[in-house]
């Protein structure tokens, strides 16, 4: 606890560095000098801004501050943390100023006594009050990563939020967040704020004055959550574009090869050229959107790959975001444009070795080589030196310098690219692309991949097996077998087992793209189970397996776009599921079957443009899934099913013109996703759900703000 005098505006500011990437890459709009890191964040006013009885003044503009006038008697001041119950400070003094030791968010309780009379008791409460959250100027990715936590702070505390940041980033966020005031540091009116929080990277904060934990241990973006005391689950901010049109008609990929220090670069000398050649061979145009086409740091020189299209230069961030939003994916480094791609909703292939993957946002397409030296940025034993462009704290001036990315191979990156869903589908071969000096594949593996892109398995297209495999991953129902089950004759048990085997054969054929063979197997299974059902109409196991077979037949018909027959088949399956659920209302398996049947029928109804009916079945699916989650709150699969159900419910509301209702459904889904990722932010299923959900929320908000039809 500090007391005596507050820091004056001329006093040295706390030591902070402007972050992982003080780069101006991709920014124009203002000269680069305006974006250079400043030596400090703006200071608060000398005197606290809030008036209190007996001439006291207080605020939370640099921690908790209170000013005690000389009234001819002693004052007693106590500061407490209401969350932990700890008394942080309790002292008697005649007059002066008291400032808490902690400058990040703490739910303070401030109490002041004069003699034995308590004259002030104030619990921190920002509701309806002005709060300033300020970010350093000169960084792009850091502020993009931090900003969504400022939004969370506003939502939690219901305050009037002002955010101070660089002008290029203000242009990116202002239209997307009309309920937040954006200012540059020069525009800050410090005397009107109830509280101020500074979000930055504090390298020398050994006493944890400005942050509750070292940012290197929690991740570059999540450090803002700890400074502001909000949920650390990551969430990309919304980005509003003045021009959201597609820059070019052909499928394209954006890349960024430049960064502010050499350790961030992909230092494999063949990496970029081979990767661009591979992408061109697959039919993509490759567009480089760096600020500079060439950087030189003796003896290192990095330039735009010869085969890439040049969109470098001093350009506004909104233009960069426009290119990113429509790209098939982005390949970049641990730098600002990767964070901008993340915020734009674009899949990010992130190549980095000097940072640990937890340092950046979660992406399933992270490329790191653990066989090499790695993670020095997140090692608290090595402080990053912004002045050293060749910073390599462990291996500098040795043959192993920058091996963290030098040993990342082009083959490693290509394998990651091939894992992106939909990679290369429907694209022409490179020979059909407009000539732009593209290099041919440089090795046999590249040539093989280029040929493979044109191949079709067994004469069928790539689309059918992919679509059916995705559909088979849906909940079509588990198959019950007979064997020695109680209540079955030996003959009936064998027939049920045989019917189950036909289902398995159909699944194998469908996965291989052999749809005719698959539907034949499913229909044989359905016929056998129908025979069993006719012999014993009240046996629930027979009825259920009949429903399962119908679901699979409907899936094949749906993929083949035979919507009328698919509709009839799913409707028959739904009727069976409804009968079983009515007869056995406490059976969770039958309850799940009914929920799945509603979802499957909704898929077909949506394809038939019968949107109101589709919504009715989505709503029934959501209601049933909610009941199942309430009965089994710890079952993660059910929680994920519920998140998916709310997302699908939002999808069903959009064509009905109920934008606000869709947004509410999406936000319920988002809450479930954030809760799951806060427990395990590496879970691929939840991350995939997050990637599909966040662009829908962003686009719905933009539609509503543009006056689209809403409920």
Please, could you describe this protein's structure?
This protein has 711 residues and is of the alpha/beta class. The radius of gyration is 30 Å and the shape is globular.
Number of strands: 21
Global outline: globular
Summed up, the helix count is 20
State the secondary-structure class.
Answer: alpha/beta
**What gap, in angstroms, lies between the N and C termini?**
52 Å
Residues in helices, as a percent range? 25-40%
- Are there runs of 5+ residues with pLDDT below 50, and where? 1-39, 430-467, 481-488
Instruction: Indicate the radius of gyration in whole angstroms.
Output: 30 Å
Could you describe the largest sheet, including whether it forms a barrel? 6 strands, parallel
- Beta-strand level of the residues, as a percent range? 5-15%
Mean pLDDT: 83
Order of strands in the sheet with the most strands?
A: 18-15-14-19-20-21
Keywords: Glycosyltransferase, Transferase
Pfam family, one: TibC_1st
Protein name: Autotransporter strand-loop-strand O-heptosyltransferase
Organism: Bradyrhizobium denitrificans
């Amino acid at each position: 606890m500090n007391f005596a005098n507050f820091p004056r505006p001329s006093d040295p500011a706390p030591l902070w560095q402007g972050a992982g990437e003080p780069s101006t890459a991709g920014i124009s709009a203002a000269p680069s000098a305006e974006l250079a890191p400043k030596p400090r964040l703006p200071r608060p006013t000398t005197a606290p801004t809030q008036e209190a009885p007996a001439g006291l003044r207080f605020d939370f503009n640099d921690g908790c501050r209170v000013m005690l006038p000389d009234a001819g008697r002693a004052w007693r001041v106590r500061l407490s943390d209401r969350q932990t119950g700890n008394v942080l400070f309790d002292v008697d003094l005649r007059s002066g100023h008291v400032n808490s030791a902690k400058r990040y968010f703490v739910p303070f309780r401030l109490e002041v006594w004069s003699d034995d009379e308590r004259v002030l008791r104030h619990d921190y409460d920002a509701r309806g009050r002005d709060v300033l959250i300020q970010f350093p100027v000169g960084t792009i990715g850091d502020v993009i990563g931090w900003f969504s936590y400022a939004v969370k702070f506003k939502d939690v505390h219901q305050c009037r939020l002002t955010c101070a940041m660089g002008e290029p980033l203000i242009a990116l966020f202002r239209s997307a967040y009309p309920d937040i005031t954006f200012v540059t540091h020069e525009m800050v009116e410090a005397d009107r704020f109830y509280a101020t929080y500074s979000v930055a990277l504090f390298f020398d904060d050994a006493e944890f004055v400005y942050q509750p934990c070292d940012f290197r241990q929690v991740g570059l973006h999540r450090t803002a959550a700890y400074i502001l005391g909000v949920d650390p689950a990551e969430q990309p901010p919304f980005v509003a574009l003045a021009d959201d049109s597609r820059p070019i008609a052909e499928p394209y990929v954006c890349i960024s090869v430049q960064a502010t220090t050499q350790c961030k670069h992909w230092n494999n000398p063949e990496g970029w050229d081979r990767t661009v050649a591979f992408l061109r061979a697959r039919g993509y145009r490759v567009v480089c959107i760096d600020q500079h086409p060439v950087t030189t740091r003796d003896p290192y020189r990095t330039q735009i790959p010869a085969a890439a299209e040049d969109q470098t230069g001093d350009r506004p961030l909104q233009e960069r975001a426009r290119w990113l939003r429509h790209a098939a994916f982005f390949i970049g480094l641990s730098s600002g444009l990767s964070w901008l791609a993340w915020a734009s909703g674009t899949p990010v292939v992130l190549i980095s070795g000097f940072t640990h993957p937890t340092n950046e946002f979660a992406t399933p397409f992270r490329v790191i080589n653990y066989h090499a030296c790695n993670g020095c940025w997140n090692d608290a034993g090595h402080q990053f030196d912004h002045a050293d462009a060749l910073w390599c704290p462990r291996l500098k001036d040795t043959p192993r310098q920058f091996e963290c990315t030098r040993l990342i191979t082009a083959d490693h990156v290509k394998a990651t690219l091939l894992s992106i869903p939909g990679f290369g589908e429907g694209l022409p071969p490179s020979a059909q692309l407009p000539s732009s000096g593209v290099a041919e594949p440089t090795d046999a593996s590249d040539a093989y991949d280029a040929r493979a892109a044109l191949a079709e398995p067994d004469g069928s297209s790539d689309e059918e097996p992919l679509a059916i495999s995705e559909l088979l991953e849906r909940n079509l129902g588990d198959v019950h077998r007979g064997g020695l089950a109680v209540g079955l004759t030996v003959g009936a048990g064998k027939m049920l087992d045989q019917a189950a085997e036909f289902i398995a054969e159909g699944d194998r054929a469908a996965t291989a793209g052999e749809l005719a063979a698959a539907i034949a197997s499913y229909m044989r299974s359905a016929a056998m189970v129908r025979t069993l059902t006719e012999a014993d109409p009240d046996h629930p196991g027979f009825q259920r397996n009949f429903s399962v077979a119908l679901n699979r037949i409907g899936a094949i018909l749906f993929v083949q776009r035979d919507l009328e027959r698919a509709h009839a088949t799913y409707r028959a399956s739904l009727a069976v599921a409804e009968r079983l659920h009515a007869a056995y209302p406490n059976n969770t398996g039958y309850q799940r079957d009914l929920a799945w049947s509603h979802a499957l029928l909704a898929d077909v109804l949506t394809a038939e443009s019968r949107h109101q009916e589709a919504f009715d079945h989505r709503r029934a699916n959501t209601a049933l899934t909610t009941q199942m989650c309430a009965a089994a709150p710890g079952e993660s699969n059910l929680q994920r099913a519920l998140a998916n159900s709310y997302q699908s419910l939002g999808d069903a509301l959009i064509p009905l013109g109920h934008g606000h209702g869709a947004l509410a459904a999406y936000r319920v889904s988002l809450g479930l996703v954030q809760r799951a990722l806060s427990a395990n932010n590496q879970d691929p299923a939840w991350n995939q759900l997050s990637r599909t959900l966040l662009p829908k929320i962003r686009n719905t908000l933009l539609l509503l703000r543009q006056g689209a039809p809403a409920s």
